[in-house]
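tl;dr need the bound structure. longer version: we got a ligand (S-adenosyl-L-homocysteine) that a collaborator sent over and nobodys looked at where it sits. i said id run it. heres the input, straight from their email, havent touched it
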Amino acid sequence: MPVNLLDFDAKGMEAWFAGLGEKPFRARQVLAWIHKRGAGEFAAMTDLAKDLRAKLEAKASIGLPEIVGDSTAADDTRKWLLKVDGANAVEAVFIPEAGRGTLCVSSQAGCTLDCAFCSTGKQGFNRNLTTAEIIGQLWLAEKLLGERTNAGSRARQGRHVSNVVFMGMGEPLLNLDAVIPALRLMLEDNAYGLSRRRVTVSTSGVIPGMDRLAAECPVALAVSLHAPNDALRDRLVPINRKYPIAQLLAACNRYLVHAPRDFITFEYVMLDGVNDSPTHARELVDIAARVRCKFNLIPFNPFQAVQGLGLHRSPQERIRRFAEVLQRAGLTTTTRKTRGEGIDAACGQLAGEVQDRTRRRGIPITEVRA
Ligand code: SAH
Ligand code: SF4
C-alpha cells in the first residue's frame, strides 16, 4: 500500500522525506502543493525534479474520501457526503455567512458516547477517521468551493473556508492521535494557515482529551454542556457519569490557561420541557460564575430515530426567555440559527439516514443525493 501523504503534518512529511533521502525543503514544497495549492496529483507538481516525482508516484498517494453526495440548501449551506470505506460515510457541511465561511467536519464514523438527543450517537460507533480523512474534508471543500465560483486562481480568490468547527460526527477528543495532526495542518502557514481562534474543537466533556489538547495543540474549545446539574446531565450526556460537571469546569479552567480565546463556548441544546426552564437558566448562571464562558443555545434538531423518545425542540419564545435570563446576568448568549434545513445538514443529523439505510441493505454506499 502506498503511503497516503494526507496523513502527514509538516513534521511527519519531513520525516517521511528524510527516509527517502530527500531534503526537508522538498517535504515543505510537497506539503504546500497539496494543501496550499490544492494539487491532487504528483504530475501537477511541476517544480519537482522528475526523479522525485517518479519516486512519489511509486511510493505515495494523495488519497481522498470519495464524494458520494453534494447538496445545497436554500440558504446556501452545502453538505457533502464522503465515503471513507466500503461501509462508512461521513459528512462535512459548509456554512457561508457574511464575511466568513465555516466548515463543520467529522472526526469519527459514529460515536461511542450515545447522547440522548444525537443522531450520530444513535448509530453506534464504527471507527475513528484517519488524519487523511479529516483533513481531506477541508481539502475537498476548498477544491469544490473554488470550482463553483471559478473566478480565477485560488490565490486571487482567497480562502473560502475561514473557520473550521469539529461539530460533525464523532467525539474529536476520543480520536486525538488523528485529530492533532489534522489541526496542525489547519494551522500551518504552509498548508491552510488558519488562526487558532478560528478552529474550534467541540467536546462532550472528555477531560483527559481536553488536557492533552491544551498541551499539544490548543485551539478554541466548545463544550457541550446541555444541562446545568449532574442529575440531568447524566441522562442527556452519559459521559457525565464518568466526568461530572465540577470536574468538567475545573478542566475548562485548566484549558483556558492555554486557549487562544479567553472563554469557553458552552453549547446548550434546547429541549422542550427537559432543560429549558428559567430555573435551569439560573443554575447555568451559577456555573458561569466558575468559568469564563459564552453560551450558544442550539434549538434541538429532530431526526427520525428520536421519534417516540419524547424529545422536542423548545418553542422560540421559551428559548428567548431562557437567553434573556443569561443575558440579564451579563453572559454573552447567542442562539444558533437553524441552517441547512431540507438537506439534513443541522447538528446531530449528519449522515444518520444514509448510514441507517446502508446498514439495512448491507451494501456499500453509492447513492448520490441531489
Ligand atoms: N461530539 C462532540 C462534537 C460533535 S456534536 C460534542 O458532542 O460536542 C456538535 C454539537 O451538536 C454538540 O454540541 C452536540 O451536542 C450537538 N447536537 C447533537 N445532536 C443534536 C441535535 N439533534 N440537535 C441539536 N444539537 C445537537
Ligand atoms: Fe457523540 Fe457528540 Fe453526538 Fe454525544 S453529541 S453522541 S458526543 S457526536
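gonna send this back to them w/ a short note. The longest helix spans residues 131-149.
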